[in-house]
Specification:
Oligomer: single chain
Strand content: 15-25%
Radius of gyration: 28 Å
Amino acid sequence: MAFARTSSVALVGVEGVAVEVQADLEPGVAAFTLVGLPDKSLVESRDRVRAAVVNSGAEWPQRKLTVGLSPASVPKSGSGFDLAVACAVLAAAERIDPSVIADLVMIGELGLDGRVRPVRGVLPAVLAAADAGFRQVVVPEQTAAEAALVPDVSVLGVRTLRQLIAVLADEPVPEEDTHPAQASVPGQAASGLAVPGAAAGSGLVAVRRPPDLAEVVGQLPARRALEAAAAGGHHLLLNGPPGAGKTMLAERLPGILPPLTREEALEVTAVHSVAGTLPPGKPLVADPPFCAPHHSATMPSIVGGGSGLPRPGAASLAHRGVLFLDEAPEFNPRVLDALRQPLESGHVVVARAAGVMRLPADFLLVLAANPCPCGRHGLRGAVCECPPGAVRRYQARLSGPLMDRVDLRVTVDRVSRTELVTAVGQAEPTTVVAARVAEARERAAARYRGMPWRTNSQVPGHELRTRWPVDSGALREAEQDLERGLLTARGLDRVLRVAWTMADLAGRARPNRDDVAQALHLRTGVDRGVPLHPAGAW
């Protein structure tokens, strides 16, 4: 038989499309033609596959060979088709039985010596294969644990093409040594820190302890805002001088967020798999991610993009977690404004000539900003050297439409000497705050059961006003701010959402006037005469 077929998966962002890999051998001058809209890296697979087959001890067919990738209208990129192309060619040459590979999905890159190398995006590829009805997949050995996260799919992890040929031909499987270069997926980051003073090659690593809120001294208003942000999914601005603790607070926000559900963990892992940022030995991302790009980051690195088919940016890597923009006014204003759409919709749509990609981007945004370029504007006992115009321009770099989407705005003052000396060991740890956040989330989940919302920040204001009214007269002050132009209509809705979060944290059935006043205080920074509840006494 001179024809064989198997399957692989083409990734478009984090979504996969099952691709049938067909190989046809015809009499004629030996040639290898690859068709089906391949990119440059996929065209190069002709040389990789030929060398890998020969170096694996199999004979390369000396006939006219055509390999087609169907559907031809879907752009295909990367080296993950190598394994499927090699097996389709060998089946067409009758080295293996074509019927054995017809219902298999194969994903993996081939080295010239026949080693099977890992590729990015194995998890979303296997998910797409399962959705297409496939139940058996072949992947590189290093990514077998990642592929096994998909239920009801049988996974075969292989080290070399020689091993795979033996399995498919029902022959004794040869033992293959692990090559050092196969230890990790390209682009993956190291998961540990070397122990200072440890001998080279000792294999000792230091496990980084998660940051704890107990290490933050003082900053009660900011801690309360952090708790409200985690409980209701509200975006947060921390404004204050350098050294006040804005970064410390932001880094501890993921610790008080609820753990990811199984479905959410698969979503997050799929994004990180495509980006190549899964740590070795940890195929599943079970905790909310924390992404903190530098202020020099470009538009594609934040929202996604790049040459050819776009790749996930920081907004997608922070999906179901926290996107922290330190020194936010130093970011390009166009980059900041590009976040306005995902803040509303929870996803990013990137259109390029090569195709349109939809990436998940449901993140909690935390902005940290200094009051002026020198950081001393309004600071007691310090002299600001910035002209008034420079201060206005610096603060205006955070546009009004972006700030209208930020529910909580808190001033973070420097810690006093008294707080630094006497408050050590008195702050609440992450576990205590996380427990309160979990209880508040449970109250919100019970209220929205059977509806498409999970947190207060996701509920449209119209729904909150009509389905779940607040106490009589509770919104009077907020409505007055709307009439005076201090709040927009969107701002009023967001105040209402924060008020529901305050009620959930306090264990109340509905927000009262104090809850709305606290929400107004956190949004506008203006004291409404009702102090925020002290930590631990919501």
